[in-house]
């Protein structure tokens, strides 16, 4: 087995890269997906979030109001730390469980948006960073996702810099080209990692 950390800034195309790795047979452990699971309606994780931040962060249906939570934690570093203290241990436990279930010769890709921020890069055999310039990130968030310029810049500012992400990389994927170019680069990296696994 080879353990791979996959990261990239918001709107870098990391989710697309993650899906391409999965198509090639990698076992993908998606931290964002798991982070949603551990605070789903009725979970102890959601109860802990409500206890810490209040029931006003719930929708009428009893789900976590993710946009409201996002606005709170990306504007307030202390609130973000308190939320991470609840969610990160739950995500780590579930990620370890999924990895333990993977085949012995697997390429296990841990899709972790905040890998550079969490100082965990050294725990992986390889780190793949999906990289685009900041102006591309902003254009994608505003143009494709309908975010305001202020929200886009706030989200980028809350994350590690490009330089910090690139500093932890064993492999960098430039995602400013076409989907075919992206697919080819992911296949090249996957082949190398599979050979090592």
From TrEMBL:
One of the protein's GO biological processes: coenzyme A biosynthetic process
Predominant cellular place of this UniProt entry's protein: cytoplasm
Its biological purpose: Catalyzes the phosphorylation of the 3'-hydroxyl group of dephosphocoenzyme A to form coenzyme A.
Catalyzed reactions per annotation: 3'-dephospho-CoA + ATP = ADP + CoA + H(+)
Binding site for ATP: 11-16
Annotated metabolic or biological route of this protein: Cofactor biosynthesis; coenzyme A biosynthesis; CoA from (R)-pantothenate: step 5/5
SUPFAM superfamilies the record matches: P-loop containing nucleoside triphosphate hydrolases
Protein name per Swiss-Prot or TrEMBL: Dephospho-CoA kinase
Keywords on record: ATP-binding, Coenzyme A biosynthesis, Cytoplasm, Kinase, Nucleotide-binding, Transferase
PROSITE patterns noted in UniProt: DPCK (PS51219)
Entry EC number(s): 2.7.1.24
Intracellular or extracellular location(s): Cytoplasm
Gene Ontology MF terms: ATP binding; dephospho-CoA kinase activity
First-level EC class: transferase
GO cellular component: cytoplasm
Annotated family: Belongs to the CoaE family.
